[in-house]
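Ticket #4471: complex job returned nothing on first submit. Input attached below:
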Amino acid sequence: MTNLSDAVASVAVVGATGYAGGELAAILSRHPHANLAAVFSGAKSGTTPFRSLHPSLSRATGPDAVPFDLDLLLAAKPDVVFLATPNEIAAEVVPQLLDRGVRVIDLSGAFRLRESASYPTWYGFEHPRAELLREAVYGLTEFCNGELTTARLVANPGCYPTSVLLAVRPLAALIDRDQPLICDSMSGISGAGKKSELAYSFAEVFGNFKAYGVAGHRHEPEIRQGLKLGDRATLIFVPHLLPTVRGILSTIHVAFTEPLTAEHVLALYTKAYAASHLVTVLPHGQLPELKDVVNTPRAEIGFQLLQGGKRAVLVSVIDNLLKGAASQAVQNFNRMFGYPDTEGLS
Amino acid sequence: MTNLSDAVASVAVVGATGYAGGELAAILSRHPHANLAAVFSGAKSGTTPFRSLHPSLSRATGPDAVPFDLDLLLAAKPDVVFLATPNEIAAEVVPQLLDRGVRVIDLSGAFRLRESASYPTWYGFEHPRAELLREAVYGLTEFCNGELTTARLVANPGCYPTSVLLAVRPLAALIDRDQPLICDSMSGISGAGKKSELAYSFAEVFGNFKAYGVAGHRHEPEIRQGLKLGDRATLIFVPHLLPTVRGILSTIHVAFTEPLTAEHVLALYTKAYAASHLVTVLPHGQLPELKDVVNTPRAEIGFQLLQGGKRAVLVSVIDNLLKGAASQAVQNFNRMFGYPDTEGLS
Amino acid sequence: MTNLSDAVASVAVVGATGYAGGELAAILSRHPHANLAAVFSGAKSGTTPFRSLHPSLSRATGPDAVPFDLDLLLAAKPDVVFLATPNEIAAEVVPQLLDRGVRVIDLSGAFRLRESASYPTWYGFEHPRAELLREAVYGLTEFCNGELTTARLVANPGCYPTSVLLAVRPLAALIDRDQPLICDSMSGISGAGKKSELAYSFAEVFGNFKAYGVAGHRHEPEIRQGLKLGDRATLIFVPHLLPTVRGILSTIHVAFTEPLTAEHVLALYTKAYAASHLVTVLPHGQLPELKDVVNTPRAEIGFQLLQGGKRAVLVSVIDNLLKGAASQAVQNFNRMFGYPDTEGLS
Amino acid sequence: MTNLSDAVASVAVVGATGYAGGELAAILSRHPHANLAAVFSGAKSGTTPFRSLHPSLSRATGPDAVPFDLDLLLAAKPDVVFLATPNEIAAEVVPQLLDRGVRVIDLSGAFRLRESASYPTWYGFEHPRAELLREAVYGLTEFCNGELTTARLVANPGCYPTSVLLAVRPLAALIDRDQPLICDSMSGISGAGKKSELAYSFAEVFGNFKAYGVAGHRHEPEIRQGLKLGDRATLIFVPHLLPTVRGILSTIHVAFTEPLTAEHVLALYTKAYAASHLVTVLPHGQLPELKDVVNTPRAEIGFQLLQGGKRAVLVSVIDNLLKGAASQAVQNFNRMFGYPDTEGLS
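Support reply: We reran it on our side without changes. The output follows.
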């Protein structure tokens, strides 16, 4: 069906018992050019059967997830390791892997910000390896060029930043940075990870809705960096928790430096995404819905011009666990090895 | 328990088979100073038993809902009629009632906008009685003074405007009208009324979320009027549909003409709501959740100052069918007759 | 409005930070014949503000919930204490209260079973006061006669048993005990209490549904006892967890000793519930829905005869936190003091 | 990757704008041995873009769905037509296709029952072609042997019957037919199809749960036939509507002619499903959950013996739109052409 090489990379997943890690295990186990050689859980002890990592794996065979152990991981001789772990663990493990010549796609935030000074503020720890922050490729796939081919370390974008940047980046040159950029983002609850806390219990979340993190969420500096906003421009990012499991919808308010037409905006988006099979831009005035992308690796973007084109409302939707995490990581893996973005994701 | 007069007003509800009308019927049937004399459905024929109007009425007795008939309504000799009907019907019925000396609390939008010229644009019909638009009291109860006591016609505010105005009005004098006022509002699906359309079916809405009406929603001119924004100021209002039944949360972005302290903002809110038992303002940085107000007649408001107090994010929550419709109508009824706002609403 | 005495009983709630306890606090704070003198949390330390116990209390004043302390409780001089605690705590506290002359309505299972031998098997502890098991009045209110008036200790029924017994008890004399009585009961997730466990998290429960406890649930001996099934009759009780918060629906399969007509069945139900304002029996073939009773203190029962009246399917619905816990406890309180069942519950 | 022939069958879907039809279109468009040649909607006019038939098709290309037209269908020269239409339409169209040499997999109920006399009673129409009822192969795939290879007409099982028969058929020889077989089945709301009715609106279904069809559902004779129960045995089937979109869980109560051990039951299930990759039987006492199979083509079955093995509770779960409709249809297609059951379904 394809004339791609039949080469297969050996891969491992660390953190496969989380929601994003489970999606990764499921995708990689079916990827025609990946061999899932080892899988590690987030637990301190015990084994999680491979088939329990994701509903679609129920009858599949593959390596059971065991507590993370660097020697075990290295023994599997992976070409690439996907990390879906807490930030602090990734900050510690990534250098160990790179030092041993293993490439890493890190789904945590440990290598997303360029400035090590940002880590104590936003992540609560001193970053151990500042030079790797400069080396890491920020893997917002559609905006990467050749750099992924040779990347040793890919910092896979956060879910909220992915949803915001996909909508704003193509228009960034025309956005008026003297006016605030306002992002109200709403995420399904799986974005918080597997939570054994009352606040995330069904009885508390059902029928509820709330904003949180308004005074500062760690995805805010990531969005700011992704848009090269600098220190002066105002970015207001308000995350909200939807009473559903999957998906992020971001409603974004921007002002332009000059009035734009719908044709102009569409041309900018087309330029950015014409080659992409995973980002769809809708006609002017048509807005995407969460269900259009949930359980898919795709993003959809809609826009509505206001005030004669001086301002716009942008709306973007993704599945937070896929385009916002696992499937974007696999897009990055595909780029590393020269496969189409959609390989293993159809 | 009270030293209020034992006087009882005769009341009627038109449109009691809708969600807001059913809430009204339930509240009024238990109100110590109301006698529910007649109830009309939104149907063209057939009778709806009183106990079917609201789950809490299952064993209650009261007038069955029959198709609207002016003579039948007048025969019940109501002191006040609550209209929870489509806009066009209210526009036609209200003058007939006023002409016969019956006071009206209209939950539709037919008398909310001052300017008759707004009706063709936003409501799709020529307004039949422009002079009544000027007479109607806009019943955002906490901002009414004595005018409700003698009002013949109360235009009960829309659900979205109620949620936005309660948060913004107390700060209005200090808001910078040269910067856009941005409101992202998310409503439970009962806000759309009882809908027999595929787009509102459970299978389509479950797990979904979307923005709609971004190019112009009829609640936008109502918010603009309620804030006296004039023509020049920019208001951006984006309504969204939450996958839940009840509640509205509005996330509102404002800029101030001068930097404010949290104490200053709280003082303004306290001035507005100190006397109210139905609006709660939270301490700086604490944001309300939908579940705090669902099934209650209350509103809650939270705020977070940004940029040294030059900007703020305001978050307000209400139950769209209660404070956004039925219970606010009963607050207005209470004011008409001199009872406390909370009478019949505890 | 009533000619009842204005007497007010002093009451206390222990376990008010749970879901059922919060409902109790809300109801009792509004009850015209109760004075809520003290409220205790399920926590070991810290204070929970009264207004946080239930959404409807947000602006209410009342005693804050503090960790349980017997001396503090006695200092409040309660006439009646409502216990909504774990079973083991109730087993220990109830005797202490009775010994000091305080009446108790216990919402736990600690005094529901007559036989102390059942406790190690079903509840995992030796019962400390077997003689109180014989004294306790099983408070399925509609089936109590005068005994509640003088009861020192009321064992408030479990939620599942309430839903099953209300449907089956009126027909019990005609049920064929040689054929299995089969109850498939489905409960909203609040029935499990406030849970900080992954299995009860929103992400795990949303869109899910399962049976559990099929090999034996502690509500099974309670149903068996409530129907006087003895050892020989077969009872099969399968509880299921619904992806919603409130409500229990039980689908019950019974065989009769002789064929019954719909009129006969209705007559039996009417005999049982004619005097009740809180139990509604629907016409033959009409089945109740969960939403008809959620957030109400009522039960609804429907039935469908099969095989010429030799068998029937019974369907009953209640709100598990109200008729299945808090409002039934208040019915029992009302009976203790001679008020109508519905007092404080409208 | 396989040594199967590269042969590709030309297929068409009628009724692709329904939920099951959309799943079919999505699966067949990705099936390595199917070429989706034509797609027909359930509408009388207008065209539905291919990418709108299912979320996963958003960027896919394929034939747009147009109103059904026999000539258009035949012009596409399909080898097999999948019908996901109302029963009456299938009853009329199937003979026309067979007469022209086109094989049919019918997802409706029009050819499921052997006896034409059952159609007026259960389906409300006289069956036009009784002889085809005897020819049709009832496509409960795991219980078909060679007959699918040559079948002209496959009657794809109903969703509820699939869930019940998979659990009961392997044990059928040991079930005591003198005792009632009781099935309480709960289905997600997509089982009702795309509905523009108030009763299926989000606002009415959210938080609700109900039994329906207790006096007789057309899936009851299909279950009875599938178990060869005859006229004498008692089958009680009560369908319920879950407040979720996808999945059926059936809780089934059976009595055996002799006491069985867990090993015996497991041996019977193993005999039935050892060769199947799509039916999983869990160890004794472990029960499946809906989420284990939603969005998969698999079934899971659990069981709990009671009364020393004289009775059992069986619990089975499927995705009603997949194993209960579309994916089972594709299993049958695979059998027709000699492919493994899982072809195109992984």
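Chain C has a mean pLDDT of 94. Closing as resolved unless it happens again.
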